[in-house]
Amino acid sequence: MTALATFSSPLLRGRLVERYKRFFADVELDGGELVTAHCPNPGSMKGCSIPGGIVWLSESPGQKRKLKYTWEIAKVGGARVFVNPVRANDVVARALGRRQIAELAAYSDVLREVRHGKSRIDFMLSAGVQRCYVEVKNVTLALGAGRAAFPDSVTERGRRHLEELEVIHGNGARAVMLFCVSRTDAVSVEPAVDIDPLYAEALRKAASRGVELLAYKARVTLRGVALGRRLPVLLRPPARAAS
Prior knowledge:
CATH 2.40.50.580, Trna Endonuclease, Chain: A, domain 1, 2 domains, 7-stranded mixed beta sheet
């Protein structure tokens, strides 16, 4: 099991009042105080931003920032959902640095935010002359029955990353799309065809052209987050049972 990427201080529990302007969330803490937290997730957060839902915030007092609270986790049904994509990359970086992702354990050096073409790829791994580029997507959307999906809103940027990974593979390096599935109830991940059919098609195309697809389920606790077991990536929706 990958070691936890821990939160720097205990998380604060509350209930979501409203998420607005994408990056703001009003939360009533359990003690009754109403605070405004930074919402680091630029997506729609479909299913995760329901008013009245339980959420957990981190606090960064004393730092020069406009909002000292950050929304980290939401409780949806019986599942905890890690909604902070920036920290999700930190979780993956920790696992890569400790060589705890079996498929990527052969690489000794890890660089973050490497420019390639017109995009930045989250990680470049190397071992001697061998190179492997890894783009990470944090998955929070649920379709039911343990099916997690990406994206939760139309993502032109996500399609550009897939195109860049295709170019990387065509130039002779490994190219990997890694889904950090940040739901404790997930058993698989797939493209959200109904939300962004163009992304779904781009993902299938990239896979057919040699881009590797990996998915790992996050272990989400109030102390921190770690990568757990590998999950299957389903490029086609599961067939419905005949009635």
